[in-house]
Amino acid sequence: MRKLVAPPLDESGLYQEAMEGYTWRHHPLVERPWTAAVIVPFLAAGAMGAGLLLGHLLLSVPVGIVLLLSLRRYFLPTEYRLDPDGVTVRHLGATTHVSWPNLKRYSLEPHGIFLSPFEEPSRLENFRGIFLLTGEHREAVAAWLAKHWTKGTPHGEGVL
Questions:
Q1: CA-to-CA distance for 143 and 138, rounded, in angstroms?
Q2: Contact yes or no for 127/118 (Cβ under 8 A)
Q3: Beta carbons within 10 angstroms of residue 110's beta carbon
């Protein structure tokens, strides 16, 4: 497994731009391991409770698997890549790529950056947009987007 690192800092303290883009890995379980102490007992209790309600404790196993899969973005790492072609997201062996012409707006959110295919907010953007969980890479990703996005507003939103 290769280790992903942030690009080196230049004299001004900003990340140097690499021609191939910017790649990072986000793994909430590793970044906040103490939250697993809260989540795992609730998952186990939920699976056991469902098994009891369904009349057989053995049914707790598939229910537990479904609950774990519903939180896969927390338990398993996700790899993100920004490059001149677009944004690529890899998780659990599945790869999603969206090219820049298909993205019209971005916004800085509390836990990451949202890329939308719509110029104006829409009810459909949660289904068609991409949310980049940035973690400790927030400033570097925001700087990369600000540098490569054609227009921007002072509030951290931009329009291609």
A1: 8
A2: no
A3: 4
Alpha-carbon 70 to chain mean position:
15
Encode 47-101 in three state secondary structure: HHHHHHHHCCHHHHHHHHHHHHHHCHHHHCCEEEEEECCEEEEEECCEEEEEEHH
**E strand or H helix at 144, and its extent?**
helix 138-148
pTM of this structure: 0.73
The answer to whether 64 and 43 have CB atoms below 8 angstroms apart is yes
- The distance from CA 58 to its chain's CA centroid, rounded to whole angstroms, is 34
For residue 152, give the 3-state DSSP assignment: strand
In whole angstroms, give the CA distance from residue 115 to residue 28.
Answer: 20
pLDDT tens digits, 58-76: 889 999 999 999 999 899 9
Where b means 16+ CB within 10 Å and e means fewer, 121-141 reads eeeebeeebbebbbbebbebb
